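Reading is simple: the token line describes the chain's fold. The lines below illustrate.

. . .
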Amino acid sequence: MPVSNGTEHGLGHKDDSPVSNDNATVLGALILSLVFLVGVPGNLFIAWSILARIKQRSVTTLLIFNLACADGFLMAITIFFIVYLAKQTWVFGEAMCKALFYLCNTNMYASIFMITLMSVHRMVVVVLPRRVSSKVSRKIMKRVIVGTWALVMVISIPSLVFRGVREDNDDGWNTTKLVCVANHTLPQHVRFHYALETTAGFILPYAVIITCYVLILRRLRKTQFRRKVRSEKLILAIVVMFGLFWLPYHVINMLQVAAQWYPEGSEARETLDKISSNSRAVTSALAFISSCANPILYTFAGKSYIRQNGFAFMARLFEGTSLDQTRTKKNKDTEGLSNADSTNGAGPPLISAKMADKH
């Protein structure tokens, strides 16, 4: 997870530490500082808007609340990584090294899984018959969310196992630094750790998300109600933004995995290790941006409510996503009436026309 080592120590060779590249370290610290200042109050405001302003919370709102909690907690602990990059030495001890990176991974998985659940839920509402989608109640979704948090806590365990503090000698300045780095004793550990992180935290979720939106688009093309509802637009924007900011991080993961297939000391392995080491601080900091970007995204999406509702604009935006779900179900009912009337030779139904004008 963030600010991790670009190469794996304990495999019989020494490489650059995650804070050895001054330019990347300064840039990473700057990005994390901005992320902290925006992300912490932004996600707290989202959580407060949902808890204090919304009485009837839709499934989408519950998922957005959990996403804000995951992102907000991740933003809160960035202060430790800012200090790490600024001092260029780890001052928080072995236990904090393991715990903080474990929490980072937990919230990374939680964020993408919540976004995946949003996409699956929208697919169920839009694509599946009403008798199926109506069963996806808030009570069921709450159980799914609890199960999701339990799952992410389990699959983040490698961050506890493969993480530790070691001394790193800086020959140029004749000093010794403490660095919190991944500590894999075998090449197989490297491949398992980072392949799991990228597969479970990026590839598989995005495969599910893309499948959901393909099904949604196919469904919308078959119906006369082609207006894109607010929740589809908002969730799709969250998905795209998450992918853009996390893709560089997972590319570096795959470069580290690829490096382990080359013999130790080979030119290809040294090149991949160097790229990973020099890029980790920046790509990890970019990954953090996705967690502070959502409040900004919601603000732009709900700007039409700001003048009328003031600080309650975020609640009005999320209430709108709940209304979209109701509208989608109404549209399905109307479509069914339209098909029945057409079969009876009654021509375009008046009800359908009224519903189309209404929505």
User: Anything to note?
Assistant: DSSP finds 13 helices and two strands in the chain. The longest helix spans residues 187-222.
